[in-house]
Amino acid sequence: MNDVLQTMRNHVSVRKYKSEPIPQETIEQLVEAAQHAASSNFVQAYSVIAVTDPDIKAECAQLTYNDHVKDAAVFFVICADYHRLALAGKKHDVTIHTETTENFLVATVDASLFAQNLTLASESLGYGTCYIGSVRNNIEKISDLLKIPEYVFPLVGLTVGIPDEEQRVKPRLPKRAVLHQNAYDQVNYSQLLDEYDEMIKDYYQNRLTNQKDTTWTESMSAYLSKKNRIYMRDYLASQGFKLE
Prior knowledge:
Layout: H1 3-9, H2 24-34, E1 46-51, H3 54-64, H4 68-71, E2 74-81, H5 83-91, H6 101-124, E3 128-132, H7 139-145, E4 152-161, H8 175-178, H9 189-206, H10 216-224, H11 232-238
Antiparallel strand pairs: 1-2, 2-4, 3-4
């Protein structure tokens, strides 16, 4: 087990931070490291907004319904970004296609890989992190606040700072549930889900904070039985992503 693998296995979501800033030089080092994520056709269809201004962080905290956003040293907002690429096209009298589902997926994957690299880089230096998917809860207001232009949309947020709490690592699905050899194998899902439900129920009942009495399949069924953020398609169209 090398240091990189151990850092990856130790990942937890940190929602309480000490009031210590991250130097600008370190922020730039983290972003530079994250930029070395793979990129489809090298389009690098992402940008990141590092929010350190206390007032803007406080407003982001309200819009995302996550109080710890304002307490983190920096709140990164990772965006899928074709604005820069549209300008590249103009240099050569070409109109790029942002309306195709494929190009939407390219930007989403690029930004996701960048986000994971940014998380790993941050945690390798001892910082705590937490992904904030709820940047999409009030996505139009977040976009206005951060002056996000056409052909760009915020995909996910990431709080980073010095941890002021300890958390147990949340047990992941058994490897047998996600690793398939040569072909997709669903034969043992029923047994694996039962085993995982027991594991997660024990974790939720015994973790340090926010204990609850539920299983993974219960919570996932409740979450996915609702149509969440159904306004996203209209928002994406308004940003130039009219998916075909």
